[in-house]
Every structure is written in C-alpha cells, then in structure tokens.
Amino acid sequence: MSRQAFDALDGALLIDKTAGPTSHDIVDTVRQCYRIKKVGHCGTLDPAATGLLVLLLGKATKLSEKLMADDKVYVGSVKLGETTNTFDAEGEIDETMPVPDLTLEGLQEKADDFLGDQLQLPPMVSAIKIDGTPLYKLARKGMEIERRERFIHLYKFQISEYEPPYAWFKVACTKGTYVRTLAHDLGQALGCGAHLAGLRRTVSGNFKVGAATRLEELTSLSMDDLAKRVVPMLQLSAATEP
C-alpha cells in the first residue's frame, strides 16, 4: 500500500497516563478533542495505574490485535500483610496478617519462583467480559463467576527495594498478565498476604513511556503538533510483519 493511502493521523499515539481516568476515558478525550472517529488502545491500564498507554488512530486500529500481543514491562510496589478484595489498594481490606522477618534476598527467592510459563487466574475485578458484561460489574453485585486460567510468561520479576511492609519491583511479562494477581499470589507464597500498592507501565512492545505525551498536554495540542507525535502507519505495519 502506498504512503499516500495513509493520513497523517493514521498511527499510534503514546500517552503517559495519570492515575484516575480509565483507558476508555482517554480514548474518548482524543476522539472528542480532535474529532477522530476511530480511536482504540493496546492494553487496558487500571484507573489507579499510570504510564504507557498506546492509542491507535484511524486506519491503525486494524493493527490492534497484533500490537496488543506485545510484551509489557511494569514497575510498582506491593504492600505486605494486607489482602484486598480487588488485589490492589483500591479495594477493601479483607484480611491482615503479621509480616515475617524478610530480607531483600529472601523476597527475591520467592519472586524467582514465579518466573517462566504459568497459568494465572484473572481477578474478578477486571474488564474481562462474560456474556458481554465486564467482570467488575458482576463483582460490584457481590457475584463470584468462574473464570478460565490464562497462560502467561514472566521474563523478569525483580524485587529492587524492601522497606517493610512495602516492596518495590520490576516485572517483564507477556500480554494478559495481571500484576495485581501476581502481587496477591506473592503474598500468599510468603504466608502474610499482600496487595498491589502502585503500578506504572514503562514499556509495551517497542514503545517506551519516555517517548509518550503527558495526558495534561494532550488537549492543548494543535492538529499539526498532534500529527508530529503520531507513530506513522507504515512504521507500525513494518513492526508487526512476521
């Protein structure tokens, strides 16, 4: 397909998401501010999470499935000694337990047990749909629905710092990995429970958050300035070719 077949706004727009808005909120903001009919994203970030959100504009939305399959990198923190009903800090505390005497080395040994291929059960509070209804809506009604485990792979689960009861980490993983679930499962393995305290996505495929536009800048850009920040369709197409 020739270069002339693509508009300047056909491509990917990298956003550095702040805590608060949903991924869909940001899609709507771009759609309304710049009157772009087709806008999608490559992988949801929870409202409380920050970092790299890859938006696809115009004809680039056709590449969504391929780009969503890319590996991801996250940094964040875990709070030990507390479990929540959502596996993160947004939920209600449902159990508290004493935190054992742990070292950074001991935490890393437990984290290493999670490396490699595995099956992970998605949390009830998630955007996965059952018969068209997101699980989180069913969870709000107090419902617990049977979910299928998903195949994931962890390339890295590095504990970088430990200051009780918080541990800071870096995770490199395949698509579909719930870091909230990973935090919860780490707490179970340690015997004291845990939940995700904070999360930031830094990498998605070949894209890095350092090249992203801050959300607060987004609504003040001219159309020309916006176009300069779009990763062109031809570049995206080349990156997704087998």
Which descriptors apply to this entry?
242 residues, alpha+beta, Pseudouridine synthase, eleven-stranded mixed β-sheet, two-stranded antiparallel sheet, 8 helices, globular
Description:
- With 242 residues, the protein is an alpha+beta fold.
- The protein folds into 2 domains: 3-69 and 208-240, Pseudouridine synthase, CATH 3.30.2350; 72-203, Pseudouridine synthase (2-Layer Sandwich).
- 26% of the residues lie in helices and 34% in strands.
- The strands form 3 sheets. Strands 1, 2, 3, 4, 7, 10, 11, 12, 13, 14 and 15 form an 11-stranded mixed β-sheet that branches.
- A hairpin with a 2-residue loop joins strand 12 (194-204) and strand 13 (207-208).
- It is globular, with a radius of gyration of 19 Å.
- The relative contact order is 0.24.
- The mean pLDDT is 89.
Helix content: 25-40%
CATH superfamily annotation of the largest domain: Pseudouridine synthase
Question: What is the total domain count?
Answer: 2
Q: Ranges with pLDDT <50 over ≥5 residues?
A: none
> Structural class, please?
alpha+beta
Which class of the largest domain in CATH terms? Alpha Beta
How many helices? The count is: 8
CA radius of gyration is: 19 Å
DSSP strand (E) fraction?
25-35%
Cα separation of the termini: 17 Å
Q: How many E strands? A: 15
How would you state the average pLDDT, rounded? Answer: 89
The profile of the biggest β sheet is: 11 strands, mixed
CATH fold node name of the largest domain: Pseudouridine synthase
Based on the coordinates given, report the CATH architecture of the largest domain. Answer: 2-Layer Sandwich
Shape: globular
- Give the helices and strands as they follow along the chain: EHEEHEEEHEEEHEEHEEEHHEH
Q: What oligomeric state is this? A: single chain
